[in-house]
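Show me any protein, fold above all:
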Amino acid sequence: MNATPLTVDRLLSAPLPELLASSNAEIVDSPIVHPSFYGLALQDRDGGISLHLPANRSAAERDVMARQLVGRLLSAIHNGGAW
């Protein structure tokens, strides 16, 4: 993972490709299209993060979803697993 700390400002303002790269995260299109499915984040054994997002959402929705999932997962990792 990048040495640059993830601050709230950076989480919300960094270009999404930069945020994903620095967080070792990638977006994966999920086949789940149910309206209540928001997405999920998985941390791989190698430390990488897979963000599984509904493919049928707008780019703006997916951007917000990705930022929220990265922030929650990294916060949990650094706080001993607490969401």
